[in-house]
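To whoever is on call:

I kicked off a structure prediction for a single chain this morning and the downstream step that reads the tokens threw a length-mismatch warning. I double-checked the sequence; it's 186 residues and nothing unusual in it as far as I can see. Pasting both halves so you can look.
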Amino acid sequence: MSSTNKLNVDFSTGALSGPSIIESTRSLADLVGIFADQAAFAALDSSRVVYRVQSFQPVDVDTEGGLFWGATVLEPGLVGDEYFMTAGHFHVKRNRAECYSTVLGRGALILMDEARNSRVEWMTPGSTHYIPACTAHRVANIGQSHLSFLACWPSDAGHDYETIRLRGFNLRLRCVEGQPTLVAQP
């Protein structure tokens, strides 16, 4: 293995390190239209960081049979009564699956198939989640501290954020009387 294909994972935090790590940050400004309560969204500082992603891509994008590895740290917070969450996506190649493994914190993995049937899986340290093909997915931080999770997905899967941006998920995860509750989206 060449040094550019070497990855180090800090399994106590989920942080990735190595010579070829790609990093990105998503602030509230990057998540326009994701949260239901637009007044609450507008009242927050748009530069506030919601999540950070690190990815290790040892092969070219679209390499059939290749795998990517990633780490996401999702901040705690609310927009109105909705938990901070990732943008959510389908894969461009819908027949590609993905795995998430929780390192720190408490979260909710929200899954929706193409027929818009949704469900949630609760994320706790050590929980590993298989995201089937043809399934949109997003993560919400339901705790008071950082939520950190690792991911592994096919390098040719691609990310279709646009479908979620236009149609959303049919359920929203809201804080109702202090508890995470799935609520139907009108």
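Update from on-call: the warning came from a stale cache, not from the record. Cleared it. Sanity check on the structure: The chain has two helices and 15 strands.
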